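Could you join me in thinking about how sequence relates to backbone shape in a protein? Label the sequence line and the structure token line clearly, so we can match residues to local backbone shapes. Once you have written the record down, we can walk along the chain together.
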Amino acid sequence: MESIGRGLDATEAGARRFALTLGRALELALLVDHATWAAANGGDLRPLAAAKRFARHGADMISADDALAESRALASDEPLV
């Protein structure tokens, strides 16, 4: 709610970070589900390695501090200083 007071750009950036977080969380859940199935049905641990690798990069995109400034610079092809 605090981003509403900062304007439309901040609100949209927050919504994008929220959507990315939901997508990454779902992707991680599906990877873990598949890794569990693969380990139980044949003992293949490669899907577990893939899930661990994905998890190391994190699913939380909401807490990005300078995401608005970075997004604006990338979208407008301006240098980031």
In short: DSSP finds three helices and no strands in the chain.
